[in-house]
Amino acid sequence: VSTPRTTGSARSAPRADQRLVQGAATRHRILARALVLAGSEGLEALTIGKLAEDLGMSKAGLFGHFGSKEDLQLAVVDEARRDFVASVGPALLEPEGLPRLLALCSAWLAWARASEGGCFFASAASEFDGRSGPVRDRVAQSVRDWLDGLTSAVDDARRLGHLEASIDPRQLAFELHSLELGGNACYQLFRDREDLARAERAIAARIEAARAPEKAGAPRRPK
Amino acid sequence: VSTPRTTGSARSAPRADQRLVQGAATRHRILARALVLAGSEGLEALTIGKLAEDLGMSKAGLFGHFGSKEDLQLAVVDEARRDFVASVGPALLEPEGLPRLLALCSAWLAWARASEGGCFFASAASEFDGRSGPVRDRVAQSVRDWLDGLTSAVDDARRLGHLEASIDPRQLAFELHSLELGGNACYQLFRDREDLARAERAIAARIEAARAPEKAGAPRRPK
After folding, report:
1. What is the pLDDT of residues B137-147, one digit of tens each?
2. Three-class secondary structure of residue A191 per DSSP
3. CA A173 – CA A157 distance, rounded (Å)
4. I need a surface site. Which of A6, A37, A141, B190 has the fewest CB within 10 A?
5. Which of B170, B181, B209 lies nearest to residue A178, judging by beta carbons?
6. Does residue B211 sit in helix, strand or coil?
7. Distance, in angstroms, between B8 CA and closest chain A CA?
8. What is the complex's ipTM, to 2 decimals?
């Protein structure tokens, strides 16, 4: 394959917007690989030197994208968050109430199953929870945001009469997230998909147990 | 305080059994400190050099106790296991069935709350689940043993008629352990004891939901 040769100064130096696009594409490629490495060895083990070697890039080149190890770690957390939102976001298109709550829990498990090393945030939280600083804070905020989103979904289902009025949305969200975490942790440790199936069954049963009794004239239970 | 001076060769060189006791005491002191360091920074960050510096010992002296970093890591896993058994073991003195199952779950949460960095095995599992080798295997075996013990406790409670005959002991043990893990993970990340209380309430409610209906003449429910 030959590269078409260009003539004229307009192509000899890429225009500023082309350079921006190329820079963003390179940055994305670096972060995608960094996320895989962090998933298998941990976020703290991820250094600019190790990443440069893995990508066949110069350390100086990587420093141009990320000024420090901490900047790199923060960028990886943000990349994981984008990944997570892309995987779990479509669940928000489900109808409000029980369907959306069930879809969110399923999407979390699917994301954890598909990710190298399992749920990035579960691993990073375990790695950084004893530390202080911006990486720990950003990881904690991401987990907090997920728990808040799950709490809202439970509360919506309760408000719509799909779940019993007496339930405590934060308590139920905690329980559902714990079952997600348990499925993720056991699957990563024992490599047995049955643990993810156990989590999925437990989540379905826990939500079923919190269902409001059906009333005459109430909307049909979503399947 | 003056050290009593001894005369005679019998005290000038410690007898072999004294040396053994001293060696074991030193080893125990080293491992107790290693466990605290591993709890806050992770098991992989624990090196013989770092531990020697922390204890004010020579690296050569520590190498006399542990021949390699991996030997040290394995010894720390064993120490954590002894710690765990000492904390959770008394729950096995509770009467078989529901009282023992509830006591085991409470003891796990108390151990996680009291441990620097939370449950050592949850952290070590997250750290080592993507690796291979004897440290990973020993951590995985410890978690497996706990899950098996919990499964037996559930099965005993079922056999004694305290829990419904239809429950799947391994599924219920998975759910109880997930709630333990969720309480531990959220407490470590957010430093809010309410997350441990949420886990405790969820475990009690989950077991309550699995209770067998009382029959006339059946033994009274344990409180």
Report:
1. 999 999 999 99
2. coil
3. 12
4. A6
5. B181
6. strand
7. 53
8. 0.88
